[in-house]
Structures are given as structure tokens and as C-alpha cells.
Amino acid sequence: MWTYGIQLWGPAKISNTNRIQRFQSKTLRAITKAPFYVPIQPDLT
Questions:
Q1: 13 with 24: CB under 8 angstroms?
Q2: From CA 40, how far away is CA 19, in angstroms rounded?
Q3: What is the model's pLDDT at position 15?
Q4: CA-to-CA distance for 41 and 43, rounded, in angstroms?
Q5: Phi-psi domain of 40 (left: phi exceeds 0; alpha: psi -120 through 50; beta: other)
Q6: Left, alpha or beta for 27 (phi > 0: left; psi -120 to 50: alpha)?
């Protein structure tokens, strides 16, 4: 759904595209129940 109007967002302000990106990220984290931050685990092999 978001990519449907991608051509319309090309000339949009950066602040507006950032707002959409934040909303999309929050929504996807809520849907997948992913944590906000996942620390990088060092490779111990």
C-alpha cells in the first residue's frame, strides 16, 4: 500500500517522508512484535 503512491512522495519534504517512515517502522514492529532495539551479537566462532 505504501509503495502504491511512491511517485507522489518523490518531491515531498524530507520531514513528511521521515514521518511516514517512522509510522511504517512503528507499525511493522507492532505487527511482528519485534523489540525497538536489537543489540549486535559478536560472532564467537
A1: no
A2: 26
A3: 81
A4: 6
A5: beta
A6: alpha
Closest CA to 24 of 42, 44, 1: 1
- DSSP string computed for 13-24: -HHHHHHHHHHH
What cell does 37 get? 532495539
Write the pLDDT tens digit of every residue in 1-42.
455 555 666 677 778 778 888 888 888 889 998 887 777 777
Taking the CA of residue 17 as centre, how many other CA atoms within 13 Å lie in the half-sphere pointing to its CB?
Answer: 11
Place of cell 559478536: 42
Give the E-state strand segments of 1-45 in sequence order: none
DSSP state, residue 12: S
Quote the cell numbers at residue 34.
519485534
